[in-house]
Amino acid sequence: VSTQSTWGLLKWNEPPDIKKPSDRWRLYVFKEGTPVEKEPYLLRNAAYMFGRDRGVCDIPTIHLTCSMQQAVVCFRLVQLRRTDENGLATVTRKVKPYVIDLESTNGTFINNVRIEASRYVELQNKDCLRFGTSTREYLLLREDTSC
User: Fold this and answer.
1) How many C-beta atoms lie closer than 10 Å to residue 98's C-beta?
2) Tens of pLDDT along 53-95?
3) CA 90 → CA 77, 93, 129, distances in Å?
4) What's the whole-model pTM score?
5) Beta-ladder partners of 49
6) How many degrees, rounded to 5, is the angle at CA 59 between CA 24 and CA 1?
């Protein structure tokens, strides 16, 4: 990802815990329930920027209510702390998907709920992203998911 965009500097810097996903994720694009792309986006890199600036954005958003740099989906290595029935705590690490809204004008939505700007929000399998007032929906699926 370049540090310069057509409209100036990038609004996002990679966090230190960014990592390529170990699970295989796909992103399906729909408009009013109909697939837009013949094939889904295969999410194999650590981060993908969404927006209208085709010079830096990995996945273009065409709608005028979307910002030039709208949001980023990235994969982060997080620690999971679990306690078993005997009270023994274990810590494991897992790469999970997150989205961050880049202070867009008209917002980023997960399952039709607007997220707070500039804060990472964990994504779940089968979550649906939407940007601005666009009717395009981006469905996140782990490759082993059956619909």
Assistant:
1) 19
2) 999 999 999 899 999 999 999 999 999 888 888 989 999 999 9
3) 16, 10, 33
4) 0.89
5) 72
6) 90
The set of residues, in sequence order, having a beta carbon less than 8 Å from that of 48 and lying 6+ positions away, is 27, 41, 58, 59, 72, 73, 74
Q: Beta 128-131 vs 108-110: how paired, if at all?
A: antiparallel
Beta strands in the chain (DSSP E): 4-5, 8-9, 25-31, 34-35, 41-43, 47-51, 59-60, 71-83, 89-101, 108-110, 113-114, 121-122, 128-131, 136-142
The whole-number average pLDDT for the span 119-132 is 98
Is the Cβ–Cβ distance between 134 and 63 less than 8 Å? yes
CB 125 within 8 A of CB 43: no
